[in-house]
Amino acid sequence: MKFDYYDASGNQTERTVEAVRLIFKESSWYLQAFCLKRDDWRIFKLFRIDWRTMKVLNQSFEPRTPPEAFGQDDLAGTTRLILLFERNSEHRVREEFAPDSITYREDGRLLVQLESRLDQRTRFYLLSYGAELEVLEPSELRRWLHVQAQKIVETYRAK
């Protein structure tokens, strides 16, 4: 396939790739492919592909074997997260988490279990769910969210 791709800085390049699979990583979908332009394996964030330029080429290719563990999260430095979402967040949860990480509970809430880096980006991403999310584990993330919620209350407390 061939498409225009925009990197994180907004620079556009045309890519011709041999697509292998889709990967869900850190709340986004990626295309794992061998890039003919770079003559190497690449992971393309789906959001950055200009779908208007997408062309499926009438060419076949011998599937290449990706390097071992290519495209998989490096689990070193990750933390086990157990998240409980309210049922009205289902649409967003289904879009942003891998299907095999989601368990539907009898009460309608969604339990999500995954390994993730516990960096600032992850913390603020989870904070964006507001009261629709309860972090069950890890306790350090629960405490951080509690402190952030208290700060928000103080900011908006009537003076």
From TrEMBL:
Residues annotated as domain WCX: 80-152
InterPro entries: CBASS_pafABC_assoc_protein, WCX_dom, WYL_dom
PROSITE patterns: WYL
Every WYL domain range: 2-50
Descriptive protein name: Uncharacterized protein
Organism: bioreactor metagenome
